[in-house]
Queue: 4 jobs
Job 1
Amino acid sequence: MSVLNNFVEPFVERAILERRENVIASKEAAGEKINFTDSLSQFTSDRKVLRDQLVSTLLAGRGIRPSVFREEN
């Protein structure tokens, strides 16, 4: 679990920093795309919530992908 937390932590920190510096509004004003972590950080700045949401999404994606590529006979 610590490997996963170490992987996700930089994304959480970046999202919080960009929220604090209001980078998301400037991205929207410039017509740039907003990513998933940007969207999450608009709702909360709680590190635990952000980390849990990112981990949940990563784990959910891991379970879905094989079923997308499986051929049904």
Note: The helical segments are 2-20, 23-29, 36-43, 47-69.
Job 2
Amino acid sequence: MMRLDRCDLICIDAPRAEAIRARLLSEDEALDAAERARALSDPTRLTLAAALREAGEGGELCVCDLSWIAGRSQNLVSHHLRALRDRGLVRSRRDGKLVMYSLTRAGSSLLGAVAGNAVGKPVGELA
């Protein structure tokens, strides 16, 4: 019986396959990348990252603003921002009594891959 999801014959193009394998992420790099991607799998974290992207290049938002924007408590927002920061997707800095957050280049890139380049539009509708 022929299966549609696998080859019926094993025929490896060894030089090509080895060249591709040599360029892949190491196991540690793949684990790190998976953790970053998993960080945006939570709807609240995805919303917070999108809000930071909307703040513009180099734009920052404080926890209070992000809490208001996301419609979540400051404690919950702080928890989620810490998870994003621990994975290198956002950066934070203290400004007096405020903690300001911004999206890192890695965070922006991953958000673009997950949510598309325009907030509020499904990836399929981007042109």
Note: The CA atoms of residues 92 and 101 lie 4 Å apart.
Job 3
Amino acid sequence: MIHLLSSCYSQLRYTLCVWCMLCTAFDTEQIEAMVLKGDRPPLDAIEGPAELVSFATRWIPLCWHESPDERPTFDGKYNVVK
């Protein structure tokens, strides 16, 4: 299971799930269409307390880098979060 979670694809999916929890302005089909085109959902649609929005809008783009090799590892995400 840990091996599966460490894949770059899983990292992108994980942060898409996080984004979905913080934003209710888009449905699943809209998000899927954006991602399949190579786009990412808009960060300005994230809702919540200012501190959470500030953190999420800095952290999520790192995980959505076009180059999978440039995305942080799950260990790296943990270090950012803690």
Note: The chain has one domain: 2-81.
Job 4
Amino acid sequence: MPAKAERLEARLTSTQRKQIEQAAVLAGESVSSFVVLAALDRADILVRDQASTVVPAAYFDQLVASLDQAEEAPGLARAAREVQRRRRIKAA
């Protein structure tokens, strides 16, 4: 485990401090360890929730099915023809 050199301070009320101290005792941890672990748990939840998008199953099924349905893409076809034309011009 890397050495701990960083510090983090927080301002809180007397009531908040007592509640945290009581919880740390119940968890059998130091206040510092309790606060760090609680903050890391919350950070993990928030980061995980922001890293994924949850949609209803029916919407997801419709999205996946739409990937198998070909659509006309005239702009894409035009762009591909332009690339081929430029390659022929450079080769000439």
Note: The CA atoms of residues 63 and 69 lie 10 Å apart.
